[in-house]
Design brief:
This protein is mainly α. It is built from 8 helices and no strands. The protein is globular.
């Protein structure tokens, strides 16, 4: 059996943490569950990360980065409305095919709110920075128009909320969206 390097183990922990935190949130997920999913002991887990907060931060950063990368890839070489539809379609496919990405985003926003309320601003600063990187990645292909970018991001957050609540594709709640931004099959199986 080939031994994994510490960096490969860190990567395994981040993937496992995204899966666990996406379901249970920060407060409902134990480091024991993450360690078990990776196949390491908790003490080893804490050699890779200084604590649960650091693991959650790494998982949140990964989720934000991967979302930004979806927008960058979808909009490559496109501008304006063409870019808008490509990015909307790519994002709704992402959350249909990998629902843990949406769940992780939602858990991240909840954790930021709780941390801010408790006076911990470090986490919020990191998430706001990652969110602004997504905003900027969308802003350029939309012609640098702040109104278009804000509208796109607002619709995206509405897609997140509606998908998170389980509105299935074909439900009348999606009728006001461009086809590219509507829920995709697999996004939700409940009405």
């Amino acid at each position: 059996m080939v031994r994994m390097s510490a960096e490969e183990r860190r990567e395994s922990v981040i993937r496992a943490a995204m899966s666990e935190f996406s379901r249970g949130g920060y407060y409902g997920t134990s480091t024991e569950a993450i360690a078990k999913r990776v196949g390491v002991s908790q003490p080893y887990l804490f050699r890779l990360f200084p604590g649960k907060k650091a693991i959650f931060l790494a998982a949140s950063q990964r989720c934000l980065r991967e979302t930004r990368e979806v927008f960058l890839e979808a909009s490559k070489g496109l501008h304006g409305e063409e870019a808008l539809h490509a990015m909307a379609d790519a994002y709704t496919r992402l959350i249909a095919e990998q629902p843990e990405k949406l769940q992780m985003q939602l858990q991240t926003y909840v954790a930021v709110s709780a941390a801010e309320a408790a006076g911990d601003h470090e986490f919020g600063e990191m998430v706001r920075k990652g969110w602004m990187e997504i905003f900027d990645a969308v802003h350029v292909p939309l012609g640098g128009d702040v109104n278009e970018t804000t509208t796109f991001m607002a619709y995206g957050m509405l897609v997140n909320a509606l998908s998170g609540m389980g509105f299935p594709p074909g439900h009348r709640v999606w009728e006001g969206f461009y086809l590219s931004a509507r829920a995709k099959p697999g996004q939700s199986d409940e009405a």
